[in-house]
Amino acid sequence: MEINKEEVEQRFRRSRVSYNDNARVQKMVVDRMVPMILSSVERVPEKILEIGCGTGLLTSQLQRTFPSDGLYLNDLVEELCYHAATVNHVPMKHCFPGDVEKLFLPLSFDLIASASTFQWFTTPEETFKKLSKRLEQRGVLVFSTFGKFNLREIRLTTGGGLDYRSKEELEKIVPMKAAFDHNYASRLDGDNVKDCKNRWDMVEQLREDIRNFKAENNCDRIVVLWAASTEIYVPVEEKVHGTLAALEQAMKEDDKEHIAPSMCYAYAALSEGCPFIMGAPNTTVDIPAMWELAEKTKMPIAGKDFKTGQTLVKSGFAPIIGTRCLGLSGWFSTNILGNRDGLVLDEPANFRTKEVSKLSTLESILVPEDQPDLYTDYYHKVRINYYPPRNDSKEGWDNIDIFGWMGYPMQIKINFLCRDSILAAPLCLDLVLLSDLAARAGRFGIQRFLSFFLKSPMHDYTENEIPVNHLFQQYAILKNAIREMGGYEADQEID
Hints:
CATH superfamily of the domain at 5-171: Vaccinia Virus protein VP39
Largest sheet: 4 strands, parallel
Shape: globular
Number of helices: 19
Strand order of the largest sheet: 2-1-3-4
CATH topology of the domain at 5-171: Rossmann fold
Radius of gyration: 26 Å
Strand content: 15-25%
Number of strands: 12
Distance between the termini: 55 Å
CATH class of the domain at 5-171: Alpha Beta
């Protein structure tokens, strides 16, 4: 449904003074919503977002019901948003004015509430998905909107009005069910998950999802990217992961110890002719069996683990140390973040997967065999700590102990404050576009040129291949590959 948001904004701006005098129905809606909210939440919400706060009818009720400093407001009309905040003693920094369908929400919330606003959404399906991703675990979305026959008389007599949706139509807007195993992410409780007989059944259901999505959205090509949680560490087991036949047999035997849900996603994607990208540090496609499947289906694979924050700094700064022949005594990295990724990584079994990924960066840049006097026996440690107040804001500290001429000790300290989602989103877009390009160019198997975007680049470790982690070498490889796929010669050699 097409809605002129600029016109809507202007009309609400003009009526803001008289709105409360005429909003009798809206007041009744708010009075009915509060008991609904109380019955829906399992715990007192600490962070609340109200969408379409208007003059603050629901805002005041939320403040009285859940008195805290964690109320955040949104409205299409900036003046209304700040007015509602002022009247209800909400900090101005807690205001997110603008079209929530286009607005980036930097936080996650325990409760998202909205009264008489959702009928103004142009793409409610996409907006529901967007809001669901901004809910904390066990978070709740409570909203009201007008029914199918609201103001029906006006529509019949004038031919104009909003296209209201029925309750049944709204209930159909739900995300696809996920392939989930609580044992692989114990800090999460999935409630919209597939009922699978075994891992092979999980694969078949995912393949059907891909086919249906492709047909329903009239897509010519599909790329599958894993941006879900880090699973527990799955070591490579030759008898299970060594060949495609062994992997398929393990799936059919429902080997939950060696077959992670992400492996089922990867298998389904490749089998349906879709490139697959592993954005977490999971073992998933970094096994010979998946390499064999990628060769068989002539599909590109890439991974693993988006290089967004601290590892990006490390892969770019370590070459400075190596190029200037500065010695390294130790590199201690610690991180804090408060989003769902941080929650999952607070579990030691899941952190182990991330630790393996992050620790691999230095060893191929500062190589002891090449410069034994400078890089033998340096101490390298990585820590990740869950800190809920930061939400999607991530902070990394690197404490680097180096030595120079005549062994003189020095220190370097790097403090990187960033937004996890803001850093990851463009990587996802680039990886999807470049993987699709690779497929169209006839490239398949491990796409080493995509290592520029990844913490732990895939490589053939069975042949003792050394991964490239040097950021500037990765960039040269990336540019060369793009030029070659475009029909041009590579323009840069790798030292």
